[in-house]
Design brief:
Protein name: CinA C-terminal domain-containing protein
Radius of gyration: 15 Å
Order of helices and strands: HHHEEEH
Number of helices: 4
CATH architecture: Alpha-Beta Complex
Pfam family, one: CinA
Organism: Algoriphagus jejuensis
Length: 132
């Protein structure tokens, strides 16, 4: 979503997609056992993802989002939801909970991403942060 924007290179350094706890551990230093206890989905995991992706890209802002874009009845997942965090300069600024009623997994993922981008814009505006 961000990388598709015109002149994205002016504000977007990169992103990581980490579905499994193993990938979260290898790429974002998320403790694998802590991750597995919550199937990779919790406010704390989202916060660590945001903090560590900011470090990976040496950026001022980091965003992390993790959730379920599809129902998984065998795990008790009966709604589509996500947790997200925004980190500004080494400090978690905001945590968010998102829900979606979109039909397909792809639509839900786009919905969650859009909600995160809008929430991030709001928190930057509220914090009156000037990005270099």
């Amino acid at each position: 979503m961000l990388s598709a924007a015109p002149e994205a290179g002016l504000f977007f350094k990169g992103g990581l997609t980490t579905y499994s706890c193993g990938a979260k551990n290898r790429l974002l230093n998320i403790p694998e056992q802590q991750c597995k206890l919550v199937s990779g989905v919790s406010p704390d995991i989202a916060g660590m993802m945001a903090e560590n992706v900011r470090k990976v890209y040496d950026s001022e802002i980091g965003m992390g989002i993790t959730g379920f874009a599809a129902l998984v009845p065998e795990l008790g997942i009966v709604t589509k939801y996500a947790f997200a965090s925004v980190v500004l300069n080494d400090r978690v600024q905001h945590r968010f909970n998102f829900m979606s009623t979109k039909a397909t997994q792809a639509e839900v993922q786009i919905d969650f991403a859009a909600q995160l981008v809008l929430a991030c814009a709001d928190c930057l505006h509220d914090a009156r942060i000037e990005i270099r």
